[in-house]
Amino acid sequence: MLGRLSVVAALSLVAALPANAQLCAGTASFTTGRMQVGGQFLSNDDYSSYGVGLNRGNARGLYGGVALTNNDYDFIDESGVVIGVGGGYQLRPAKQGFQICPVASLAIGLGPDNIGGSNTDMSTFQFAAGALIGMVAHRSGNFQLIPTGGVSIVNSKVTLSAPGGNNADDSETYLALDLGAGLVFNSVWTIRPMLSLPMGADNREESVSLGVSYNFGKRASAKPAQPARRSR
After folding, report:
1. H/E stretch holding 102
2. What is the dihedral of CA 55, 61, 86, 31, to 10 degrees?
3. Residue 194: which H helix or E strand, with range?
């Protein structure tokens, strides 16, 4: 049971990452609001996960955020909390209309503790780095359809701490492919279904997720501010 739990826990850390922002990730642009709050539900055969995140960014350049997630492991009726931070760099959109963003994230999982009454606690750590690409495929009135995809290198580590200092570590590095599309309404609301496919990893299955986000706050300008002219 503990071996199966460690595999599931490493994959479920994906749900803890902050909701990505901007065209490359299939969401509303920071030009409509520099703050973005969102929630996400993720499901797999072995667990379900739900969490919230908050991001801040500009029309271009750096952006980042934090997230808090709860993972429910169905086959042992246990749960754990994951804290995630992440961000990226928004490159200037290409003439063809697509945008690419290098991204990176870090997630730390706490629990479940005393798994099945065994006095064994679990903790997790994950780092991921890669890139996202997206573009507006359809625009009609206040609606936009933005397909998005990304690939990243993921390094995950799961630690099981047992009484008497009998600890067990399991670490693995693999590729993750994310595919989906953002449905953007009124330039501020985004509904984004996604499919995550782990590649080159043992006993890892695909996950489906659904995210909802809302942009608010001061609008970010796509053009840098011009210096004031001196009066003569």
Report:
1. strand 98-110
2. 20
3. strand 189-199
pLDDT in tens, 14-49: 444 444 567 899 999 898 899 999 999 998 887 888
Q: How many CB atoms lie within 10 A of CB 30?
A: 27
The DSSP secondary-structure symbol of 188 reads T
C-alpha 103: how far from chain center: 10
Determine the Cα–Cα distance for residues 145 and 159; give it in Å rounded to an integer. Answer: 41
Paired tokens of 64: 């980042």
Half-sphere CA count of 172, side-chain side, radius 13 A? 18
pTM of the prediction? 0.85
- What is the three-class DSSP state of 97? coil
Q: How far apart are the first and last CA of the chain?
A: 78
* C-alpha R_g of the chain: 19
For residue 123, count CB atoms less than 10 angstroms from its CB and return exposed for 0-12, middle for 13-18, buried for 19 or more.
middle
What single string gives the DSSP state of each residue in 126-173?
Answer: EEEEEEEEEE--EEETTEEEEEEEEEEEEEEEEEEEEGGGEEEEEEEE
Phi, psi of 30 (to 5 degrees): -70, -10
User: Which of 218, 209, 227, 221 lies closest to 25, judged by CA?
Assistant: 209
Nearest to 176 by CA among 147, 160, 156, 146: 156
Domains of the chain, CATH where assigned: 2-216 (2.40.160.20)
Chain segment 91-125, per-residue pLDDT in tens = 887 778 889 999 999 999 998 888 888 888 888 89
Q: How many CB atoms lie within 10 A of CB 202?
A: 8
